[in-house]
Amino acid sequence: MRLAAALRHLLRQPWLFTAVVGLCGGIAMLALYVVQPIALQRLDLRIYDALLPLRRLNQPSAVPVIIDIDEESLARHGQWPWPRYLVADMVGKLTAKGVASIGLDIMFAEPDRTSPARMREDLYRDKGVSIEIAGLPSFMADFDRLFAISVREAPAVLGAFARYGGEPYSGPMPHAPAMIARGGKDAPPYDRYLPIAPSAVLPLPQFFEEAPVGFVNVSPDADGLVRQIPLLLKFGDAVYPSLALQALMRALGTDALRLYTGPDGLFSVSAGEFKIPVSREGYMLVPFQGARRTYRYISAAKVLDGKVRQEDLEGCIAFVGTSAPGLADIRATPFDRVMPGVEVHAAAIDAIINGNFVQSPSWAPGAQALIITFVTIAATLAFGFAGPRVYVPSSLVLMGSTVLASRQLFMSGLFLSPLYGLLTSLLCGGLLLSVRFWNEEKQKIVLRRAFSRYVSPEVVRQISKRQGDLLAGENRELSILFTDIRGFTSLSESLSPQDVVQLLNRYFTPMTAIVRNRKGTLDKFIGDALMAFWNAPLDVPGHPALAVDAALCMQEQLEELNVEIEASFGIRLDMGAGIHTGQAYVGNMGSDDLINYTLIGDNVNLASRLEGLCKRYGVPVVISEHTMQGCGDAFAFVHLDVLRVKGKTRPVSIYWPMRHGTDEVFKEAMPQWIAARSQYEHGDFVEAAEGFAALVAAYPAVRLFGLYRERSLRLVQSPPKDWEGIWTMEGK
Questions:
Q1: pTM of the complete model
Q2: H or E segment at 239?
Q3: Would you call 294 helix, strand, or coil by DSSP?
Q4: Cα distance between residue 511 and residue 492, in whole Å
Q5: Under 8 Å between Cβ of 260 and 183
Q6: Residue 292 half-sphere exposure, CB side, CA atoms within 13 Å?
Q7: Contact by Cβ (8 Å): 190, 266
Q8: For 599, which of 151, 189, 502, 586 could close a Cys bridge (C-beta 3.0–4.6 Å)?
Q9: In this structure, what is the dihedral angle of CA atoms 51, 53, 55, 61, given to the nearest 10 degrees?
Q10: Distance separating alpha carbons of residues 518 and 283, to the nearest angstrom
Q11: What contacts 537, CB < 8 A, 6 or more positions away?
Q12: Rounded to the nearest 5°, which phi and psi values hold at 170?
């Protein structure tokens, strides 16, 4: 019950409801950021790819070079795997050309079956045949030994592949470089978050005893593309570098790495003079410079044939691998879906040497939370409380600033995705605009329901198109109409309640139509009385004339209606109407559960008083001077009196409006009326009484003349002091 009451209260406070909707949108985005759904991860990766060209260098580094076991090499030297003496020969020739280091992106996990010694053993074991090869030098008997000697004498790095599952490895371990930890007292161990490989595909022990190993693993993202590589991983009890990092260490002649840690863990790795930013898991983002063959490719066949110049290789870090499709060493990267895997290591070396790094900072989660919060607040203010003209500029500013900030950070080497800022803007904006649309539609329904009873359908359509809260209160100049059936209480005594209802329905139906057809707003029925006003909720030009026209039409309509009423009910109706034009407060009034669009103010009371004067002066319609002035020359007017009504100090001039052509009596009597009125206003009551008596004799049906005659006679008997021509009403 309390929850339902709280929801009802919330819905009745539009600003609070809007703020809560915006807050919910922000909380939803924070939850999405924490959960990181796969779809959003992939979208985030696409944004990273779109920003990646900003880190493209004018010229990639010439240090990494790829020795490619390509189709030409396979055609010349046979299918893979080659005899190890060929690989040893290639390593020796690369060393002779002065390469800084050699990274072998090849697995040497099994003995070479083409070695003569191995062939003799296999034939004897399988067939019982013993063979001797005449003239074979002893050093050529074992190709694996040849290869081991070649890597011992060269700055070579052997490739290894880490397995993150399966049975733990229990064989001999390769030599691991020294790890020098640099961090504060509150920093966790550098290897706490590194990937752990229980097993691995390693070179033969006779090989890794002669040369260090580097792991060739890459780390595809959720969409299968390679954007980062693990620079470090934990295997056994030691930490090993990647092939690219180990090749750099060999080139620099160092066997140690400096590892920098902070409160969140590892954040940087140093090899010699090169400091590499990494994630706490030891991953390095590789800012690829383009598609395949961004770096120099040299065919392995040309190296073996000695057709490569010294200057093409001297000082380079050579990665030996293959681009041949059949050997299945293909990786998908942001720029190329079929990039040779060996080029990934070359791209990593290029980034390290040029200092061209991209990293996702450790403070990114906090920054994203702040961005989501800021965008939520800004979007709530822009879409929840501002006008429609602000929507598009606000969207452009919010989304543009988010993208621009992310772009500038990326150019500085920091990747702070704009995705969640953009999604927050879209989600909060969409929710808030939906709420506003729902509120506006709801308000339109309320307006249509509220005003369809009071105004014409055309006015209802205009109200629905208006922006803003038309039901809100405001002070406006209004023309206010009151009508009342004379003596209805006594008339209704002769009718049954059912007949009274039918009579009123028949009477009010045409009267309401007259108001609505003249752009008026029907306020309410008060028994047999009717209240209406003009110039609210919409502006109505010429509203005083429209109100007077409505009152006169009501009188004309009543003449026709009385024929039916007399035939049906045996009575005739007489109606009076009062109109006043002035300021009044109009708007939605009532309780939270029951409201009414109405008006209040002294001018409303005055209009009601004017209606009550119709019977006293014997005229069908009484209007104030303000209404008369607002009508211009649309009607003819008879100045009835200047009154000081009860409860008011300021006098009011009242008039009787007529249509032009229906005022024949007053055209004839006007000279006498004006003369008698002038005498009355100047306090010459005897002469005035005689003048009014002459008018009564000539026009006995006009009650107005008789009223002034009786009033003048009273004033003759009791002359007032300080007479100003203003009559004070003693009652309402």
A1: 0.67
A2: strand 238-241
A3: coil
A4: 19
A5: yes
A6: 16
A7: yes
A8: 586
A9: 150
A10: 79
A11: 451, 463, 466, 470, 471, 521, 586, 597
A12: -130, 10
